[in-house]
Specification:
CATH topology: Metallo-beta-lactamase, Chain A
Number of strands: 18
Radius of gyration: 23 Å
Structural class: alpha+beta
Number of helices: 10
Shape: globular
Strand order of the largest sheet: 1-2-4-5-6-9-10
Largest sheet: 7 strands, mixed
Number of domains: 1
CATH superfamily: Ribonuclease Z/Hydroxyacylglutathione hydrolase-like
Order of helices and strands: HEEHEHEEHEHEEEHHHEEEEEHEHEEE
CATH class: Alpha Beta
CATH architecture: 4-Layer Sandwich
Length: 328
């Protein structure tokens, strides 16, 4: 009986202590320093065999999931977001990937530049924070010509990477540079055609714009892989060094919480939703079955991880933080 009473007394004492610390004590607390409320530089580095891969954050922006998702019910969207403790509006990351092969410095995608407003356009600052200068970039490979992938290629109408060759698939160039395509496209995509043309123009004038066709090796260890649907020439890139492989897949996934559960879920920005679904399923299956490292432009920064298959759905496994990747 005494033991039970002692237990109750101890529990009551602990409860009073918790109330004091959590409820009452903050009334008298004083901050020792002002809050900073900023993040550190947006870069993260991993080694891929002998290649150095640096993920660069261009920014995050509110992604209007409730209005742009297609081929999925609003109830399913709400359920998927709630499962991951997310609420609208969710923040979408815009990532790019810098590959140092030892002989060339290659940037995959450039972020939005000024085209998305103050939320974004931080890629250049993060590139410098990561220890590189824009003049050192030898090639810029674009997954496609949407604003948030090509917008950072220019600064005040000039080449942001003055010594680089800018490359994109011929199919994407043919589509986005064609006035007839613009006339047939949904109205909300009209400005995408304009930004694609203006972002590429300085490189064209300088003779530094090149296209490629389909699947081909662009540099030793770097292959273009056609994954059409989101845009006609949407391209993923396979990077291989030694026994390690990275798949930089562009816009295969926009909202991981929804599209990993239901790969049929699409976005209204897709030029061909059915083709985008086929490419998504193919890349998810490839990444999961081959245990590839994945670089994802729109999964939470740094957007580097693995895909695990689970029945008819998939899971994203982010890389573990490595404080000194150069030693591996």
């Amino acid at each position: 009986m005494n033991t039970m009473r002692h237990g109750r007394d101890l529990a009551a004492s602990l409860l009073m202590a918790i109330i004091w610390v959590v409820v009452l004590h903050p009334l008298h607390a004083r901050a020792g320093a002002p809050q900073v409320r900023t993040q550190g530089p947006g870069f993260y580095r991993v080694m891929l065999g002998e290649f150095e891969v640096t993920s660069l954050l261009d920014g995050t922006h509110p992604f209007p999931v409730d209005t742009v998702m297609t081929d999925v019910s609003k109830d399913e969207v709400a359920k998927d977001l709630a499962r991951d403790d997310l609420a609208l509006p969710i923040q979408g990351s815009i990532n790019a990937f810098l590959i140092n092969t030892g002989s060339k410095l290659i940037l995959i995608d450039t972020g939005a530049g000024i085209l998305y407003g103050d939320c974004c356009g931080h890629l250049m600052a993060n590139l410098r924070a990561a220890g590189y200068q824009p003049e050192q970039v030898d090639e810029v490979l674009l997954t496609h010509l949407h604003k948030d992938h090509v917008g950072g290629a220019v600064t005040e109408g000039k080449m942001a990477f003055p010594n680089a060759v800018l490359r994109v698939s011929q199919s994407d160039a043919d589509y986005w540079f064609d006035p007839a395509s613009k006339a047939k496209a949904p109205g909300f995509l009209s400005s995408f055609f304009d930004s694609a043309i203006s972002s590429v123009a300085p490189y064209q004038r300088a003779g530094r714009f090149k296209t490629f066709t389909g699947n081909e090796e662009l540099e030793p260890g770097i292959w273009a892989l056609a994954t059409p649907g989101h845009t006609p020439g949407h391209t993923s890139y396979v990077i291989q060094s030694g026994t390690q492989t990275l798949l930089v897949w562009g816009d295969i996934i926009h909202v991981a919480s929804i599209q990993l559960q239901n790969p049929s879920a699409s976005v209204e920005y897709d030029t061909d939703a059915r083709a985008a679904q086929r490419s998504r399923r193919a890349m998810l299956q490839l990444a999961a079955s081959k245990h590839l490292l994945v670089g994802a432009e729109h999964i939470s920064f740094p957007g580097i991880g693995h895909i695990r298959a689970s029945a008819d759905t998939y899971e994203w496994i982010p890389v573990n933080y490595d404080g000194d990747p150069g030693k591996h």
